[in-house]
Amino acid sequence: MDYKKLKIYFMENIAELKQLLSMPKDIVILSHRNPDGDAIGSSLGLYWFLKNQGHKVRVIFPSEYPAFVAWMPDADKITICDLEKEFAMKCIAEAQLIFCLDFNALDRIDPMEEAVEKAKAQKIMIDHHMYPEGFADFILSRTDTSSTCELIYTFAEMLGQSHFVDGKIADCLFTGIITDTGSFKYNIFPSTMRVAAALLERGANNDFIQEEIFNSMREKELRLLGHCLYNRMEIVEELNTGIIWLTKDDFEKFDIQRGDTEGVVNFLLKLKKVNIAAFIKEQPSIIKLSLRSKGDFSVQQVATKYFKGGGHKNASGGYFYGNLNACIERFKKGVKSQLELEKST
Ligand code: 5GP
Ligand code: MN
Questions:
Q1: Is 127 helix (H, G, I), strand (E, B) or coil?
Q2: Closest CA to 265 of 292, 283, 240
Q3: How far, in Å, is the centroid of ligand 1 from the Cα of 165?
Q4: d(Cα 128, Cα 142) in Å, to the nearest integer?
Q5: How many A from CA of 22 to the centre of ligand 1?
Q6: Which atom of ligand 1 is nearest to 304's Cα?
Q7: Atom 2 of ligand 1, residue of closest alpha carbon
Q8: What is the DSSP-derived secondary structure letter of residue 3?
Q9: Helices H, strands E: what count in the chain?
Q10: Residue 197 pLDDT grade (very low, low, confident, very high; cuts 50, 70, 90)
């Protein structure tokens, strides 16, 4: 495989980074807006890995994380830029090193984009999405990886320091692997299983994590799922596509909080006839899309071309300004064009 062509970066200058990390540093770890299990798992995993070696480390997210990851050690110490903007900017300006985890385009950390661009710190990107931007001094970017959490363990190995991964770190990293692979159902590679095995050996508690992530729903979330499936689902047979949408009113009526709709999009793919799925949420000033597919169809292309977004071939996201119906129509049009394009090539 020609990894250069795929834009896979192995961080060939890692010796330089290892040297930088050999002395205590002031480090900021950033991840993307609406952080998921992989974002928080990789951030807190790396946080403990660096903190245990004497660095001063702060994790900053643009927006709040969902309740199902609040159990992670020191989750409550994470700075949320939406809530503490000035402090977040100050930390970024003063940092010596900035790790950018689970994202590869600076618009994913808005409103910190400019601060990171201007920061004097050296920047390190560790990520598994397609088409990385070149803003970092050190890049470990591999699409042939399940998750950023898997890559953090690989990074520890590359530094020759995987022995510093203790049970607490292993729990954080194992979480991102299971959330980004749906508990080893998709997007797994031989390396994923090797890293997962190593994390179990280092003390990751699978039973505990599975319960916290997958069996911790509140009643209102399960009722909301029922509403989505019964009242807000459309199947477009000729496109093998399923759509679930939620209106602003739904958000109020069901008192929907961050993370409450996690995983809803995947139910559409349970239908044999559905290969392409969209979950479309009407938020106060923006409409957010979560896209998924089975097989060869690239929702990444649809997200990039029609919704200023991106991600992976089978899991992407994007956003839209306008009304909900217009967004749904645009999605259908985008899928149709992409299907025609894929058929002709
Ligand atoms: P989710 O649907 O779970 O929010 O996101 C699925 C995937 O798409 C994730 O890998 C995420 O990083 C990516 N993604 C979601 N929203 C956006 C977006 O607005 N822009 C880009 N570039 N990627 C996104
Ligand atoms: Mn991820």
A1: strand
A2: 292
A3: 28
A4: 5
A5: 34
A6: 22
A7: 290
A8: T
A9: 13, 13
A10: very high
Domain, as residue range, for 293: 219-344
Q: Verify whether ligand 1 is closer than 6 Å to residue 290 (CB atom).
A: yes
Distance from the CA of 147 to the center of ligand 2, in angstroms?
A: 5
Ligand with smallest separation from the Cα of 290:
1
Mutate to test the pocket of ligand 1, among 141, 146, 244, 316 (most ligand atoms within 8 A of CB): 316
pLDDT band at 1 (very low <50, low <70, confident <90, very high): very low
Cβ of residue 309 lying under 6 Å from some atom of ligand 1: yes
* Tens-digit pLDDT profile for residues 252-271: 999 998 888 988 999 999 99
Q: What is the dihedral of CA 183, 185, 188, 192, to 10 degrees?
A: 30
Same-domain pairing of 166 and 233 = no
pLDDT digits over 24-42, tens only?
999 999 999 999 999 999 9
Residue 188 CA to residue 169 CA, distance in Å, equals 21
| Residue 123: CATH number of its domain | 3.90.1640.10
H or E stretch at 300: helix 299-307
| 37: three-class secondary structure by DSSP | helix
- Dmax over Cα atoms in the chain, in whole Å? 60
| Same domain membership, residue 257 and residue 189 | no
Residue 344 reports pLDDT greater than 50: yes
pLDDT score recorded for residue 250: 96
Residue 21 confidence (pLDDT) above 80: yes
Question: Number of folded domains in the chain?
Answer: 2
